[in-house]
Amino acid sequence: MVAELLLAVAGVIDGCIKLANKVITTYQSYRGADELINERLVLVQALWTKLEIQLNFLKKISSQLDEELAQSHLDLLEILNGKLLQAVARLNVSTSSPSDDSTLKQKTSEVWRKWRFSLAKKGLDELVTELEAWRSRFDPTWYLIILMSSNTLDTALKETDTKATESTSVCSSPSPLDSMLALRQAISSPKTSFSGESQPKTSLNLDAAGLRGATETPIPFSSARSIVRAGSSSLFIAESVNAPPGTISQVKVDVENLARRLQQVDPQTFGLLRCYGLLKHQDPATKGLKYIEVVYRAPQDANPPMTLRQLLLRHHPVSASAIMRTAKQLVYSISYIHTCDFVHKNIRPDNILGSLPFLK
After folding, report:
1. Is the pTM of this model over 0.90?
2. Is residue 320 part of a domain?
3. Which ranges of 169-247 would DSSP assign to H, the alpha helix?
4. Could you read off the pLDDT tens digit of each residue along the chain, which spans 360 residues?
5. Does 341 fall in a domain?
6. Do 143 and 253 have their domain in common?
């Protein structure tokens, strides 16, 4: 059963890549004919370049997947295959020819050209939307691969990432394998990778002097606060971690381990803030570590952060679609935390941050 699943995964990946390349090659025949088509084609190519890297890597290590993970990927791949088949069908309509009657061709050539371009634009718009939606569902499952303890996986990841970096350098975009490799290293021993190679230890400690003159604003209903440093427009979020008496040493280790994993998180995929570093505060009397503050980067275009509780109090009623979207994002966030070998607890409206469009 598992062997059949693995063969099916590899087969569907091959089919998806062939279909996607056929669609993109056909649409490239429109390049230069219309500026809007050019823009949409660039978006499709950028999306597919990253997806193809992920799919090729998945195929390369598919023999290492367990049954549950293989079935999960197969289900998603079949959805992608269906979307690409629909794209091919749309292309067949837009590239079909009018009647062979030469007089009719002459009369309708301009109308036909405009109609074809209109269909091409619509088809590209739909393809962009479908690829983005599919990738948002695929990425959380794809990241579960990092939990596999396999030297084969490490070797394949490094080899594929080198080739992928060359492919994505054309569009100045990072390889999707970069974050996977960094996270895989982060969730391993701080000093060694999964493959046993020694690694440099990344410093997490921040200098409190960097916050002198910063504007700090409490976030209502939350223990966190927003920070804007003097002379900068970058927004940060800071939250204190207090340890019960006698546990500060263990809390320090746990916070540092989680911070390393959160330094590698993809905020758009998992709905988690990326960790910027740690501020460690000493007890003036004992000079020992008293508590730790975790500092996160906020999205550059973010509105002032608000807790979900504050947002809920402002919006009456909240739409069902917003509730489902929030629940879905929480599942992605929790899956990442579990992938990092941590458990989740105390998830409340008070510690979920968003901005004004969050519940629309």
Report:
1. no
2. yes
3. 176-186
4. 688 888 999 999 999 999 999 999 988 887 776 787 888 889 999 999 999 999 999 998 888 888 888 999 999 999 999 999 999 988 877 665 555 555 555 545 666 667 777 788 888 899 999 999 999 889 888 877 876 766 777 777 777 666 655 555 545 566 778 777 777 777 665 443 434 444 445 678 998 888 888 999 999 999 999 999 888 888 999 999 988 888 999 999 999 999 988 988 888 878 899 999 999 998 888 888 999 999 999 887 667 888 999 888 887 788 888 888 888 888 888 888 887 778 888 889 998 988 655 655
5. yes
6. no
- Judge if 243 and 295 occupy the same domain: yes
Give Cα 147 to chain centroid, integer Å: 17
Residue 24 belongs to domain spanning: 2-186
Of all helices (H) and strands (E), which one includes residue 119?
A: helix 102-143
Amino acid identity, position 126: E
Element (H, E) at 281: strand 274-282
Q: List all residues 6 or more positions away from 220 whose beta carbon is below 8 Å from its beta carbon.
A: 306, 307, 310
Q: Are 149 and 102 in contact (CB under 8 A)?
A: no
**CA-CA-CA-CA torsion for 333, 339, 341, 344, nearest 10 degrees?**
20
The DSSP output letter for 293 is: E
- Spatial distance between the Cα atoms of 310 and 306, rounded to a whole number of angstroms: 6
Q: CB 29: neighbour CB atoms within 10 A?
A: 10
